[in-house]
Automatic annotation (TrEMBL):
Residues 215-246 have a biased composition (Acidic residues). WD repeats lie at residues 407-441. Residues 211-283 are annotated as: Disordered. One of its GO terms (cellular component) is nuclear origin of replication recognition complex. It is found in: Chromosome, Centromere, Kinetochore; Chromosome, Telomere; Cytoplasm, Cytoskeleton, Microtubule organizing center, Centrosome; Nucleus. Residues 284-673 form the Leucine-rich repeat and WD repeat-containing protein 1 WD domain. This is Leucine-rich repeat and WD repeat-containing protein 1. GO terms for molecular function: chromatin binding. Coiled coil: none annotated. It comes from Zapornia atra (Henderson crake). Keywords: Centromere, Chromatin regulator, Chromosome, Cytoplasm, Cytoskeleton, DNA replication, Kinetochore, Leucine-rich repeat, Nucleus, Repeat, Telomere, WD repeat. Belongs to the LRWD1 family. It holds the Pfam family WD_LRWD1.
Length: 674
């Protein structure tokens, strides 16, 4: 019988607690604990645990499924630990102590520095700079050596048309050879080097040789996935833990590399043509993972669920997240079908999964709330809002694995949601009922009680598809791309009028060249404080236009029809398919948009933005071609190639390190910038 019980955990909490989910600090030292005493089911209830002391026990390893999503400080000194790799399950860990474990060596120090991206202190020493070197410089050099070893000794051994048995054989030989022959750093770290070389080599082979759908053999069937209804009050409905997610990884069987910049009709001109070798050298992003994690009923045969929205988790201003090395979150929330997933872009791990069997999720958005946690202490937490076909907004405290409430916002489906960048509790919901509502979602107390209220209703003439707050005045103006036009509203809350019509309707050139206000706008985003990117009436064209030159904020109120001041047009696919939306990366001056063939069109506009900022900046005469097109790789599912892949959405993290691509075939593709 395990030595650890609920009563013991409550008693050893600091201070003592009456509920497991309230415990933030726990002292389990000097209890003669063995690995088998750490019951994952019991520990999974410690949702808020941040500090854990397991020193002076008899642990020889950590179980792989201790669900402690908020753990920041861990002390496991004076045990019998033989391996540290299981610690990767605590990605937020900032301080780790494991002194006086006789079997651990400096090789293990380097392993945890690589595995734990937020780690600052190891055995009381600041390892920030060294860890950065281990994760970047060391990895880059080893990757170069592994690649060179393959090219020199193994590439020519594999026939162009090869069997699965031949792949298996050469993989075995290569892994053995590369671990023996690739040497780097001092001999005292040879074990760590072999460990990283094997990891890098396996990733290299997965990309280069290609495999069919690879199902994690350790994946278990889900526990109870039924949704507990909750409404503006605390009702527990935990998200699924990562190890419970039925995740299928897709890897390419053969990858097409193409970086051509198409001219009219998608034909390359002589000046744009390049050889395969040149194209390969010019690749700026490589595919990391292909995930099938939104399947209905967890079916591995589901290649029909549409994926719609994704957004990267914001960084919290606390602890290791202040470290400039941790420049951007690598966790992304995705939605489609009945589920919302949280994915680690680097590892491809599905960290969390939240399901509502009767829902189809269309949109997700993050905000950071400062919540009172205990003893009147305040702490920042990221909250995820998810909405879709039922017209209901789900509010999820991700670190606590807890959907703490819902807002019945509309009677018809919600197309998109977004939070105000200046008012963290203000949420906009755009619905098929032809209304955009502004809500104050409130701040939940320590028992997750909260009160939501509606502040504004913006009246729309057609269904709103995309919304964007104006960066220079996010509390005053909102733009919406709709089924029948592009509109702007004054959203300032000092006005008495709660229900408001639009203040401006924008005109754009139609297919015949004349100006029109009647056109579907299914893509809308700001590239910077002034430049708007929108996809609308003309097939094969994305417009860039100026907010300040199109809309006079000092003008009189009332409804106005205004001509959008076009700065440039981006060359894009000639498809007439709708709802293939676009996104921007303002920090890097990039625009992204997928097409009907599974390709991602990327535009680096840094050479244009300075001219556009000038009041006398003229419109670019010619359409701007894409800087690069990422082609969809040939993926196989059940022995057959996935066909007719539409790219519904493409989003990069703020620093353009990762690119997340959502498709019409239930596949999330993650690319990483080289």
């Amino acid at each position: 019988m395990s030595k650890i019980t609920t009563e013991l955990l409550l008693e050893r909490a600091v201070p003592r607690s009456t509920r497991l989910r309230k415990i933030e600090t726990l002292n389990l030292s000097k209890l003669q604990l063995k690995t088998g005493d750490l019951d994952p089911r019991l520990f999974s209830r410690l949702r808020h645990l941040q500090k854990l002391d397991l020193s002076d026990n008899l642990l020889d390893k950590f179980p792989n499924s201790l669900t402690l999503p908020d753990l920041r400080v861990l002390n496991c000194s004076n045990n019998k630990l033989e391996d540290v790799t299981a610690l990767k399950q605590f990605p937020l860990l900032e301080e780790l102590t494991y002194e006086n474990n006789a079997h651990l060596t400096p090789n293990d120090d380097y392993k945890v520095m690589f595995l734990l991206q937020n780690l600052r202190l190891l055995n009381g020493k600041d390892i920030t700079k060294l860890a950065k070197h281990v994760r970047s410089v060391n990895s880059r050099k080893l990757t170069s050596k592994v690649t060179a070893h393959w090219e020199k000794f193994f590439r020519d051994q594999l026939p162009e048309k090869h069997t699965a048995e031949q792949v298996k054989s050469i993989k075995k030989k290569f892994l053995k050879s590369v671990q023996t022959n690739v040497v780097h750093g001092p001999s005292s770290l040879s074990e760590f080097t072999r460990w990283r070389v094997k990891m890098i080599a396996e990733e290299f082979l997965a990309r280069s040789l290609g495999l069919e759908l690879n199902t994690d053999p350790e994946t278990d069937e889900k526990a109870d996935e039924s949704e507990e209804e909750s409404e503006e009050e605390s009702t527990e409905s935990p998200m699924e833990a990562a190890e419970e997610v039925d995740q299928v990884t897709v890897t390419p069987s053969k990858r097409k590399r193409s970086n051509s910049k198409p001219g009219s009709g998608n034909k390359r001109s002589k000046s744009q043509a390049s050889t395969e070798e040149e194209a390969a050298e010019d690749v700026s992003a490589e595919p990391l993972h292909f995930l099938q994690c939104h399947s209905k009923g967890n079916s591995r045969e589901d290649f029909k669920t549409q994926l719609w929205s994704c957004v990267f988790e914001p960084l919290l201003d606390s602890g290791a997240r202040k470290d400039p090395i941790v420049s951007s979150s690598r966790t992304v929330a995705t939605c489609g079908g009945e589920s919302v997933c949280l994915i680690d872009c680097e590892t491809g791990t599905v960290l969390k999964k939240y399901k509502v069997a009767t829902e189809e999720f269309f949109s997700v958005a993050w905000t950071t709330l400062t919540m009172v946690i205990s003893n009147s202490r305040k702490k920042s937490h990221n909250i995820l809002a998810a909405a879709g076909r039922r017209g209901i907004v789900k509010l999820i405290h991700v670190a606590a694995d807890f959907c703490y409430g819902e807002i019945k916002a509309h009677k018809k489906p919600i197309a998109t949601v977004c939070f105000s960048p200046t008012q963290e509790t203000h949420l906009f919901t755009a619905s098929y009922d032809k209304r955009i509502a502004l809500w104050d979602i409130g701040i939940p107390d320590c028992e997750y009680n909260f009160k939501a209220s509606q502040l504004l209703v913006l009246e729309v003439l057609s269904i709103p598809l995309r919304i964007a707050l104006v960066p220079t005045c996010p509390e005053q103006y909102l733009l919406a791309g709709c089924e029948d036009g592009c509109f702007a509203w004054n959203i300032k809350l000092d006005k008495e009028q709660k229900n408001r019509p639009s203040e401006a309707t924008f005109q754009f050139p139609g297919e015949d060249g004349s100006l029109t206000t009647s056109h579907r706008v299914d893509g809308l985003a700001f590239l910077n404080d002034d430049v708007i990117v929108s996809k609308s009436s003309k097939p094969g064209c994305i417009y860039l236009w100026s907010w300040s030159r199109s809309f006079d904020t000092k003008g009189k109120g009332g409804q106005r029809t205004l001509s959008a001041v076009i700065l440039a047009e981006l060359e894009w696919s000639l498809t007439d398919l709708s709802y293939l939306t676009l996104s921007t990366c303002p920090a890097k001056d990039y625009v992204f948009c997928g097409d009907e063939n599974g390709s991602v069109w990327m535009y680096n506009l840094s050479s244009y933005t300075a001219a556009w900022r000038s009041a006398k900046g003229k419109r670019s005469d010619k359409r701007i071609p894409p800087t690069q097109i990422l082609q969809w790789p040939e993926l196989q599912a059940n022995g057959e190639q996935l066909a007719e892949v539409l790219i519904n959405n493409v989003v990069s993290d703020p620093t353009f390190t990762y690119l997340v691509v959502l498709t019409s075939v239930n596949v999330t593709a993650i690319w990483k910038k080289s």
